[in-house]
Amino acid sequence: NAGVTQTPKFQVLKTGQSMTLQCAQDMNHEYMSWYRQDPGMGLRLIHYSVGAGITDQGEVPNGYNVSRSTTEDFPLRLLSAAPSQTSVYFCASSYSGGAETQYFGPGTRLLVL
Amino acid sequence: GQQVMQIPQYQHVQEGEDFTTYCNSSTTLSNIQWYKQRPGGHPVFLIQLVKSGEVKKQKRLTFQFGEAKKNSSLHITATQTTDVGTYFCAGPERAKSNYQLIWGAGTKLIIKP
């Protein structure tokens, strides 16, 4: 099992550009989520999904969209990148819920100029 | 909403000294989870505590859950270079129709050269 995979590992964007961060898991987990990590602020939940076709907003959803067409994939879209979105983005999954043990991907480091 | 406070933000120790991080919740927790993030890496689950007053050990790591289930601690005895990283606690909070993890800001363990 590859676990949770994320692409790309690094990305530099200009303000206003859009992009999609990819996340996939091969553990047949129902629950998937996206976090951003900024220095000294821990992990903040952006969006989450409790199963294919179901998504919901987390703590900091503005500027991001998600979809969940399959159990395996949960892409995160930045609609119009802003410097405030410079961060490290982690995708995580768990068997069935947000309060269970979370399995994290390796992260995407994003710089918005 | 619920808050999880974690202190200290940083702790510098000499190799061989002990390390402790403390986690305090504004509300009673059903459980608490601890994760470790190595520099440049992603959070990795260490342990979950469920019972009031519970103490669990993993080699040199000792985890405690307070009697009131509102606080927890992680103590590392005789730190080694492999212990370097950031340690996060997280507890579940009910948000909308689901439970999500609320994360502490983490304590960074730094070993002095």
What report would you give on this structure?
- The complex is a heterodimer of chains A (113) and B (113).
- With 113 residues, chain A is an all-beta fold.
- Chain A is built from no helices and 11 strands.
- By secondary structure, chain B is mainly beta.
- Chain B has strands at residues 4-7, 10-13, 19-25, 32-37, 43-49, 55-58, 61-65, 71-76, 85-95, 98-103, 107-111.
- Chain B is globular.
- The A-B interface holds A 40-45, 48, 50, 56, 58, 90, 97-99, 101-107 and B 6, 9, 30-31, 33, 35, 41-45, 48, 88, 90, 92, 95-96, 98-101, 103-106.
Into which percent range does the helicity of residues of chain B fall?
Answer: under 10%
**Based on CA inertia axes, which overall geometry of chain A fits?**
globular
Strand content of chain B: over 45%
Radius of gyration of chain A: 13 Å
What structural class is derived from the secondary structure elements of chain A?
mainly beta
Main sheet properties of chain A: 7 strands, mixed
Number of helices of chain B: 0
Assembly status: heterodimer
User: What is the helix content of chain A?
Assistant: under 10%
Give average pLDDT of chain A, whole number.
Answer: 95
Helix count of chain A equals: 0
The percent range for strand residues of chain A is over 45%
Largest interface: A-B, 21 and 25 residues
Output mean pLDDT of chain B: 94
End-to-end Cα distance of chain B: 41 Å
